[in-house]
User: Fold Class II aldolase/adducin family protein from Azospirillum himalayense.
Amino acid sequence: MTSLSHPAPRRAIIDTCLAMNGSGINQGASGNLSVRVEGGFLITPSSLPYDETAPEDIVEMGFDGSYVGRRRPSSEWRFHRDILKARPDVDVVLHTHSTFATALAVHGRGIPSFHYMVALAGGDSIRCAPYATFGTQELSDQAVAALEGRLACLLANHGMIVLGKTLKGALALAVEVETLARQYLHAHLLGEPVILPPEEIARVAEKMRRMKYGLPPDEDAAPEDTARPREG
Assistant:
C-alpha cells in the first residue's frame, strides 16, 4: 500500500476547515482551502462536508491542472492555482461565504480604510472583485487582479478570499476581515464612516510590521511606546 503524501498538511487543512465552520465564518461544505506543497498544492475536495472529510479525500494538484486522489478537487481550484502561481509570497488560499463580507459583496462593495485594522489585509482597502460565475477562469482572473498587493478581497455576490503563509494566519485574517465587514455595515447605520487616508494606513502597517518582528518602534513613537525592561 502506497503511503499518503503530505499527511500533516492534509490533516491541518481538515482541522482548519472545521475551525472555519466552528467560528461561524463558513457553513456546511461551502468555501474551500488550499496549501502549497512541493510541485503543486493540496486542496479540499468538491461537495464533501468537512466533518466527513478524511486526509485521503484532500486532493493533490499540479499547477498544470492535473490532480491525483479519490475525489475531484473543489470547483474553485482555478483561482487557488492561479493565486498560488501569481503570489510566491503566500502558501495558503482560504475562501469562505461568511455572512457580513458576503452582505457587502452582494452590493459590489469592498471595505475602505474606515478602521486602521484594514491594514492587516495589505493595503488601504479590501477590494471587491467583479462578479463572475463560480469555478470559471473569469472569476480566477478577477480574483487575482483584486488581490494584487493585498492579502484579502471580496468576490461580488459570492464571498471572500484571504491569503497567508500559514493556515493559522489565513484563518485569523479571515476572521478579522469578517469582523471588519460587520463593523463597516453597522457603522453605515449612522451614515458614511470617516475614511483614514492612505498615508495613515501605511504608517499603521509599518508599526504592525515592526511589532510582528520585535523591532524597535519607529522614530515618531510616543514615549510610552519606547518602554524597555527594567535592568537589575
User: Anything to note?
Assistant: The chain has a mean pLDDT of 93. The chain is about 35% helix and 15% strand. The longest helix spans residues 167-187. The longest strand covers residues 32-37.
